[in-house]
Amino acid sequence: MQPMQLFNLAFRQNEWLAQRQSVISSNIANANTPGYKAKDIESFDAVMRQSVPMAVTDPQHLAPADIGTALQNGGSSEAEVLVSGNDVNLEQEFLKSNDVMRSYTMNTQIMKTFDRMLQSVTKA
Predict the structure, then answer these.
(1) pLDDT computed for residue 20 by the predictor
(2) For residue 27, is it within any domain?
(3) Is 2 part of a structural domain of the chain?
(4) In the 8-state DSSP scheme, what is residue 33?
(5) Fewest C-beta in 10 Å: which of 1, 39, 105, 119?
(6) How far apart are CA 107 and CA 99, in angstroms?
(7) At 88, phi and psi to the nearest 5?
(8) What was the pLDDT predicted at 8?
(9) In degrees to the nearest 10, what's the CA dihedral of 26, 34, 95, 78?
(10) What are the tens digits of pLDDT across the range 26-65?
(11) How crowded is residue 31: how many other Cβ atoms within 10 Å of its Cβ?
């Protein structure tokens, strides 16, 4: 029997979300620290592209290069640098934190649904 890759993927995403939340928390905690530069971690998509290379198995599938251009979102990540040299924007950090919470909730709901499906199949 093949291992359940969905559980492994969900676990990896939850680990990434925990790391990102830790970095966001550090940014918020240092919002008044002179000279502190806000940090962020590499996106989960980029991490997955590095660890799991995509392959086109059907001519109608998107090629990996096409996916990168299709998923690009325009937005400026430039932060305002204050007189103290600090560039932490609390509004952006709270938005990032909300995004982490939303992603974690969605991940958990998908796993619960998958678990219920597995349970219903094994009971029958």
Answers:
(1) 95
(2) yes
(3) yes
(4) S
(5) 1
(6) 12
(7) -75, 125
(8) 85
(9) -120
(10) 999 999 888 899 999 988 888 877 776 666 777 777 766 5
(11) 14
Q: How far is CA 112 from CA 6, 9, 109, 123, in A?
A: 12, 14, 5, 16
CB 33 within 8 A of CB 90: no
Within 13 Å, how many C-alpha atoms sit on residue 52's CB side?
Answer: 9
User: Does residue 109 sit within a domain?
Assistant: yes
Q: Which two tokens stand for residue 106?
A: 């969605």
How far CA 123 is from CA of 18, 116, 118, in Å, comes to 34, 11, 9
Taking only the tens place, the pLDDT of each residue in 91-123 is 999 999 999 999 999 999 999 998 899 899 988
- The pLDDT tens digits of the residues spanning 78-93 come to 556 656 778 889 999 9
Can you give the residue range of the structural domain that contains 3? Answer: 1-45+82-124
